[in-house]
Amino acid sequence: DLRKFREISQTVTLECSGNGRVYANPTVPGLQWEKGAVSNAKWTGVALRDVLAKAGVKTSGKFITFNGADLPIGAVPDFQRSVPIEKALHPDTLIAYKMNDVDIPLPHGKPLRLIVPGIQGVSWVKYLRRIEVGDMPYATKDEAVHYMDLMPNGQHRQYTNIQEIKSVITTPSGGQVLLDKGFYNVTGLAWSGRGKVKRVDVSVDGGRNWR
């Protein structure tokens, strides 16, 4: 039934909400482990807004919750995340059935996965099996209890969606020892779910000075 809708393909950045943290004990050195939970892939599917329009979503709908047959924290095969209706109706938000021109592999959510550019990967619900529209936040455990952000004032922010600014220096790589004094090229990547990155500041002395 989904394949009857207009097919869309796009390359999107997928990032784990935990990217930047080190889980192993003892820790594993290197950028690939510390900040490597991010990648790009070509996703193919249909626009979520086309499916919602076909279903006759009412104007009172404000939030959409997505249910997947996943194994989240607690190992219960029922994973739910919700997104505001504005994000769900964005033309880049997809229900995908292909990844890099083949059927989505099982670890990535076969047969269907939600694709929402700009928000954390945890909200790209895998093994998608149900979509519900409501007029208020759903307060699912995977957004109101788990996957919260600890803010500088000590409070926790619930309903985290937007992927905040991230950056990483790729050369010289983590743990690399420079052989001698001199000039070295510094390269890296910066990305954000909030929009385009206009400028990157770099420090070579531990954050005391920036260029």
Short description:
With 211 residues, this protein is mainly β. It is built from four helices and twelve strands.
Overview of this protein structure:
With 211 residues, this protein is mostly beta strands. The protein is built from four helices and twelve strands. Strands 1, 2, 5, 6 and 7 form a five-stranded antiparallel β-sheet that branches. A three-stranded antiparallel β-sheet has the order 4-3-8. A two-stranded antiparallel sheet has the order 9-10. It is globular, with a radius of gyration of 20 Å. It starts with 6 loop residues before the first strand and ends in a 20-residue tail after the last strand. The model has no long low-confidence stretch (mean pLDDT 87).
How many helical elements? 4
Q: What is the structural class? A: mainly beta
The gyration radius over C-alpha positions equals: 20 Å
Name the shape in a single word. globular
Assess the beta-strand content as a share of residues. 25-35%
Provide mean pLDDT, rounded: 87
> What does the main sheet amount to?
5 strands, antiparallel
Secondary-structure element order, as H and E?
Answer: EHEHEEHEEEEHEEEE
Number of β-strand runs: 12
- Report the span from N to C terminus: 54 Å
User: Helix share of residues?
Assistant: under 10%
Low-confidence stretches: none
